[in-house]
What does this fold into?
Amino acid sequence: MKQEEIYLKYLEKLRLKLIIKYDELGLRAAGDYAEELEAQVTKTKMIMFGINYSQYMEYGRLAGKFPPRQAIENWIEVKKGLPNIFYEKKKQMAFVIARKIAREGITVPNERNKGGVISKVVDDFLGNDIHEMIEELGMLWLPRIKSDVLEIFKQVA
It folds into this structure.
């Protein structure tokens, strides 16, 4: 297995854990967060791309600016269990929600979002999975390191 494949393997593991936590916390409505998580590896980086509102699920949102109403309308369409008025007067309800967010912001944690949707998973990954990845990478690098060390000794002798 190549280095990049090992990185992708562990990023995929992280991606799946992020989705599990998202569902565990009951934050799924349309599922865009889960669908938009994308792992990418370059020669120097492991990157997890996510949807723009990921930061709001994790940290909340400051007051002062209206969120996009279309996103709230989309959320109303897919969210189950809201009072009927939300579905009947979707545009008006989206405006009311956006105005409330603009005025008050959103604090996380709150009664609908316990928080940690990203940070708890990443902390666990750094505490556990990263060690497995390093061990796997070590097995990959060991022959190369061994070869380099032997070459050094040959040059010295």
